[in-house]
Design brief:
The complex is a heterodimer of chains A (248) and B (367). Chain A is an alpha/beta fold and 248 residues long. Chain A is built from ten helices and ten strands. In chain A, helix 3 packs parallel to helix 6, helix 5 crosses helix 6 and helix 7 runs parallel beside helix 8. Chain A is globular and about 55 Å long. Chain B has one domain. In chain B, 68% of the residues lie in helices and 2% in strands. Chain B is built from 14 helices and four strands. In chain B, the strands form two sheets. A two-stranded antiparallel ribbon of chain B has the order 1-4. Chain B has a two-stranded antiparallel ribbon with strand order 2-3. In chain B, strand 2 and strand 3 form a beta hairpin. Chain B is globular and about 65 Å long. The two termini of chain B are 28 Å apart. The chains are: A alpha/beta (248), B mainly alpha (367). At the A-B interface, helix 2 and helix 3 of A face helix 8, helix 9 and helix 10 of B. The structure holds adenosine-5'-diphosphate (ADP) and magnesium ion.
């Protein structure tokens, strides 16, 4: 059932914490080039799903296949990152003491080994790549600022920029607009659509208006499994989804 | 860690050492500005402590590894050079044995243990000063960082490491002189150790090694490697998701730091003339951390400042009010932690840009 254009395939993934099933035989297929929105109430297992894909958490059972036939459950975080999977955390996580520029420079795809970074000098090509990302994430004027001094929304964008710098095939974005103003939320939706022109994206989000603005296929998670899948109108009309959201 | 602070520190260390040496050597003993040889050796001892402090700051300040066992690397470097100095004694020992150090003759040993071979050669001993602490750090760090031991657990096992070595080196049958350690050294590289000129030369050497250590450490922390290291210190898991291997970064800097501490220990032993197991005592490692905290963690230069100032205080107290020293040290540590979280150097740095920006919130780890 896996097509050639499948990028990510989760099959019956189960994760338990002390007997509690955070993921319960979760299955999900993501096409190459697709953007998918994942919604669901708090505790549905959305972040845990990202933990499994990125190697932070090992599933008790189930398969996670990336690309042709790479089994991600056998790899650790740096190895998975090097395969081309980038992740944005729920809480913005940037390198606070470093400048915006340095944050992007450290994220640029390239040799990660100490023996390289110890002698590395910024190349002209690296400078151009950082410059281009600064334009995309609209932080060009802030390049010299300490990342810790940025506003919440700016940090979110910087982190998305760091993801872009990694040049991943797949971006996993966890609640990017939490705590953002309406204007920032709108700009973020635009930014993600722009990114999706060249890369596959999975966005976890609570904000329905934002998900609607993205206009992509939606997966609703509940109690560690998929409850419903389809267009935003389709899932909002699904009685099980209505019950989960209203029953809270 | 700014360039000017580093330059100032280098000038003070090198200039100060040169000045003391010249005032010791060139002026007659009764001249008012004459510096006694005792002071020269004391200054040299402080600089060797400063080398340990910079090594501690490198791992604690920039990689977040709070090592409470760094004095072990310092002591191992000291033992390595001490073994060379013992073998240099030759027939001038109490028992006049050309091969065996006095304590082995005393224990009725007939043969030099295998691990003492080669230490009659200065070059071999110098290699061991670097290699022994470096190898121990490599093995220890590889095990600890690979299993993602960090924070307080890591601190505890570093403390256990130095404590285990303390107990081991106390044993006579380990072959390192037991309780008494190694002492009664006569000369180094064929030069008598008791000569004033030798003392002055050792002080100068300490200053030069400290300067080189500072420059290397500064290069490392300002390189791209250093930026990754700081990122690992603050948000380790984030660096993993970017494809970095934090354990490789920590291991490199931990080994480098251990080697630096070992060199400091070798210079220390050359100037105090003795190395015994008490150098492994956990309190020594904790003191080194206090020096760094007092001077300013994560600044390198602050480590030098802290090591020299605290040890000046220690010399004064242990002379004037010996029973009060530990209380004074404890009080100092508490005061610095509460009032000067960035140490003395932070105090100097904060003043110029106090009002406008306000301190940025500390980053939290991602997990
Ligand atoms: N490391 C962990 N240990 C124990 N329970 C966890 C852990 N991580 C997540 N959980 C639990 O798993 C469930 C799913 O959490 P999460 O994936 O964060 O949900 P979501 O991101 O959808 O809000 C929650 O009930 C949470 O408490
Ligand atoms: Mg979550």
């Amino acid at each position: 059932m896996i097509h050639n254009d499948t990028l990510l395939y989760l099959d019956g993934v189960t994760v338990s914490f002390d007997g509690f099933r955070a993921l319960n035989a979760l299955s999900l297929v993501l096409e190459r080039g697709e953007m998918r929105a994942v919604i669901g109430p708090n505790g549905a297992g959305k972040t845990t799903m990202m933990d499994v894909i990125t190697g932070k958490t090992r599933p008790d059972s189930g398969k996670v296949v990336f690309g042709e036939a790479t089994d991600l459950t056998r790899l650790d975080e740096p190895a998975i990152a090097s395969l081309g999977i980038g992740r944005k955390f729920q809480k913005p996580t940037v390198f606070e003491p470093h400048t915006v520029w340095d944050n992007l420079l450290l994220a640029l795809a390239g040799d990660r080994r100490p023996r390289f970074t110890l002698w590395a000098r910024q190349s002209a090509e690296e400078g151009e790549r950082v410059e281009a990302i600064l334009q995309t994430i609209r932080l060009a004027e802030h390049r010299g600022r300490r990342a810790g001094d940025l506003s919440h929304g700016q940090k979110q964008w910087l982190e998305i920029g760091m993801l872009l710098a990694q040049e991943p095939q797949l971006l996993l974005v966890d609640e990017p607009v939490a705590g953002m103003t309406d204007a920032e939320t709108e700009q973020t939706a635009e930014l993600l659509r722009e990114i999706n022109r060249t890369r596959s994206v999975v966005v976890v989000e609570h904000d329905m208006a934002f998900v609607r603005a993205l206009g992509v296929k939606v997966t609703v998670m509940h109690e560690g499994a998929v409850l419903s899948e389809g267009s935003i109108d389709h899932v909002s009309a699904d009685p099980r989804v209505v019950e989960v959201y209203l029953g809270r | 860690m700014s360039r000017t602070a580093t330059t100032t520190c280098l000038v003070l260390v090198l200039g100060g050492a040169a000045l003391l040496a010249v005032l010791n050597l060139a002026l007659p003993a009764d001249a008012p500005l004459h510096v006694p040889t005792y002071t020269v050796s004391l200054a040299g001892k402080y600089l060797s402590y400063a080398m340990l402090a910079v090594a501690v700051d490198l791992v604690w300040g920039f990689a977040g590894i709070l090592s409470l066992g760094h004095a072990a690397f310092f002591a191992l470097g000291g033992y390595a050079i001490g073994m060379y100095l013992m073998r240099q004694i030759g027939t001038r020992g109490v028992y006049g044995n050309a091969i065996l150090p006095d304590f082995m003759v005393f224990l009725n040993w007939k043969q030099l243990p295998w691990y003492w071979h080669g230490f009659d050669n200065a070059f071999f001993a110098i290699v061991m000063v670097l290699l022994v602490p470096g190898l121990l750090a490599l093995v220890f760090g590889w095990l600890a960082f690979r299993s993602r031991v960090s924070g307080v657990y890591l601190s505890i096992i570093t403390q256990a490491l130095t404590y285990a070595l303390l107990l081991a080196f106390f044993r006579n049958d380990m072959g390192f002189g037991g309780n008494n350690g190694l002492t009664d050294f006569k000369d180094v590289f064929g030069i008598p150790l008791h000569l004033d000129a030798t003392r002055d030369g050792l002080l100068a050497a300490s200053a030069v090694f400290l300067a080189v250590e500072l420059l290397i450490a500064r290069y490392v922390v300002t390189s791209r490697f250093g930026k990754v290291l700081i990122a690992v210190r603050d948000t380790e898991s984030r660096t993993r998701f970017l494809g970095y291997r934090p354990e490789a970064y920590k291991l490199f800097v931990f080994v480098l730091s251990a080697v630096m501490a070992g060199v400091g220990g070798a210079l220390y032993v050359l100037q105090v003339g003795i190395i015994n197991p008490s150098e492994f005592s956990p309190a020594n490692s904790i003191e080194a951390v206090i020096w760094v905290a007092v001077g300013g963690r994560g600044t390198l230069v602050g480590a030098v400042l802290g090591a020299v100032l605290v040890n000046l205080g220690k010399t004064y107290f242990t002379g004037a009010l010996p029973e009060l020293w530990l209380f004074a040290l404890g009080a100092l540590f508490i005061l610095v932690t509460l009032l000067l979280p960035d140490g003395l150097l932070g105090l100097a740095r904060r003043r110029p840009r106090a009002a406008p920006a306000g301190p940025a919130p500390e980053p939290e780890p991602a997990e």
